Amino acid sequence: MLQTILAISGKPGLYKLVSRATNSLIVEVLDETHRRMPAFATDKITSLADIAMYTETDDVPLYKVLANLRDLEEGKTVSIDFKKAGGQELREYFGKVLPEFDRDRVHNSDIKKLLQWYNILTANGITNFEEEMQPTGGDNIDDRKEE
After folding, report:
1. Calpha distance 62→43 (Å, rounded)
2. Predicted local distance difference test score (pLDDT) of residue 95
3. Contact predicate 35/11, CB 8 Å
4. Distance between CA 74 and CA 110 in Å, rounded?
């Protein structure tokens, strides 16, 4: 099933798009509470399908990076304590996931956020990133279809 997983700037965690309301989206927090709440047009909302990581050549869609991470960790949560890891340790670990990542444009905070998102997704049973987070066409979410 194709889902829309969202990141909302200024709010921790990830969210699943549930429905649309007047002037807002109804999202469900991807955690143990599964609390639903509105996300408004003033919130900076980004679909994970629209995010890519910088590399030395072309940008790599986030779902491919997450799939590489899943394959490295064999579907389990990350083996590194990314909250306490130093910058060099994070970059060495991420080099195993995406060897050609752009070391100048990908910051340590980006790597930490990616690892956090991966743990959230796997904890919620979302591991088939290639299928779940395929980019979709169309500017309006109602118009989007699998490409």
Report:
1. 21
2. 96
3. no
4. 22
